[in-house]
Specification:
The chain has one domain: 3-Layer(aba) Sandwich (Trna Endonuclease, Chain: A, domain 1), CATH 3.40.1350.10. Helix content is 23%, strand content 27%. The chain is built from four helices and nine strands; from the N terminus they run H-E-E-E-E-H-E-E-E-E-H-E-H.
């Protein structure tokens, strides 16, 4: 029996058709979802070989803004089918202490964000394609690591709240880039 990313044992129910672990499919689907939004916004993606630094990808703009040319930010991606995590005003996510501290450390040169993709429970409805186009019921909520910082001690886990108004869309991604690009020199 194999284990998933959290170290929990995986049974046959944790494998999708073709024997690919659901957690691996979710990871790839969240990156693919993010890529589609980024490309539609005119941005590019820099992949990371590992997420040792607490991030999975870097999203880069080629636009020039008031403060910077080519703003970018790092993104830690998570994926879940747990609809119960979606509350009236936010998406809640329980992070392990070590990755939370890595993501929110204050001395980051490049700004960091957390994105949590909420997908339907079963793999089949994650994505539908017909002659009208591509459709997914999935949606991602985001928040800047700076806004997630927590000053108190964290033992094992910390629950974060990503506002529902922070829906990862083309317009919101462009807004993030403008916010980073328009910052005064030295402020990111």
């Amino acid at each position: 029996m194999s284990t998933d990313a959290s170290g929990d044992q995986m049974g046959e129910d944790d494998l999708a058709e073709g024997q690919v672990p659901i957690t691996a499919l979710q990871e790839h689907f969240s990156v693919s979802f993010t890529r589609m939004i980024a490309y539609a916004a005119g941005c590019s993606i820099k992949p990371h070989e590992t997420d040792y630094e607490g991030v999975d990808i870097t999203i880069v703009s080629s636009c020039e803004y008031h403060g910077y040319y080519g703003p970018q930010f790092e993104l830690q991606l998570k994926c879940t089918h747990q609809e119960s995590l979606l509350k009236d005003d936010s998406m809640t996510w329980r992070m392990k202490a070590k990755p939370f501290r890595k993501l929110t450390r204050g001395k980051r040169f490049i700004p960091a964000y957390l994105g949590v993709l909420l997908i339907p429970r079963e793999p089949e409805p994650w994505l539908n394609v017909d002659d009208w186009g591509l459709f997914t019921r999935s949606r991602m909520f985001w928040e800047s690591a700076e806004n997630l910082r927590h000053d108190g001690p964290i033992k094992d886990y910390h629950t974060v709240h990503l506002p529902r108004r922070n829906l990862f869309t083309v317009d919101q991604l462009r807004g993030i880039m403008k916010s980073i690009g328009d910052a005064e020199e030295g402020q990111r």
